[in-house]
Model the fold of this input.
Amino acid sequence: MMNLEKELFLEGLNLPEGFSFRPAKLTDVLELTTLFNLISEKVEGVKDFTPHELENDLKSPGFDIAENTIIICDQDGKIVAYQDMFALSSIPVRPIVWGRVHPDHMNRGFGTALFRWGMERAKSVLDKVPKDVRVAVRTWNVSTWNAGKEMLENLGLEIKRHYFEMEIEMNSQLPNPVWPDGIKIFSFQYPKEAKDLYRAFEESFKDHYGFVAEEFDEGFKQFEHMRINEEGFDPDLWFLAKDSNEIAGFSLCRKWSHESREDGHVSVLGVRPKWRKKGLGLALLQHSFTEYWKRGQQRVTLGVDGNSITGAVKLYERAGMKKFKQVDSYEIELRPGREIARV
Done:
């Protein structure tokens, strides 16, 4: 791959003398984590990467690190820039291109050249998608990071969605949740309930932006890898709301947030359509807050689609949460056609 795309990668980029590029390797995880945290501190004021989480991402089923990553190293072999392309769905209509450049090496064209490389790599998904189906590259940028915004817009990407990070800081234990009639709350039993939970997860999000139906085995494999194998997983913090034996809704919480082990984080909160508009989402959220309070974690965060069709932002505000960060989702079309992702 590197020889094939070397000419494309170098177009318009003058690498300083002694600088080089190569694919990333798993042995780079510690150095990459340090690089990513250095940049996230500059952009957002927080460290939000850990070696375990990064390694788990790079070991995702179906991800080829040698084919789908590239790094730039300086004359001492130190990594100064990184880029990847993730397309893990069985029908990858929304490949994700993501990269970072060391603050000392910004404004040298590295980010633009690497992102172009990522978009070119994303074309490799076209043969895996029916020829009449639309394919578009997606990426994200923190709304306050103007340099990232400018680069993406110069490359032709457009904002398609806003996402918010929200938080609650509890000064006292919150009131107990009021559960809809017939609903009881349980902690997740792994592995016995894993496939039933995944089915409920898929049904809860099938009408959300960007959803594309997966073959069950492939989708479950990704779900298990990304949600259960990650270091913040604790089955006692995965709450299932059941109506008799059916999972009506769920709140999948981490032991700690990505930014601080002092804080909690609700990774996913979902309610199946049959049980919506009954107060179940609010009850699940309040139950999650209470459990964090019992653990001594007074700040809890979560991420939400700003245009959620279920009115999630208003729900979270009603629960006492406030927005503290906006992340913009960008897109550029690789191939026009019939849209199969939920819009």
Q: What stands out?
A: DSSP finds ten helices and twelve strands in the chain. The CA atoms of residues 91 and 129 lie 6 Å apart. The first strand starts at residue 20 and ends at 22. The chain has a mean pLDDT of 95.
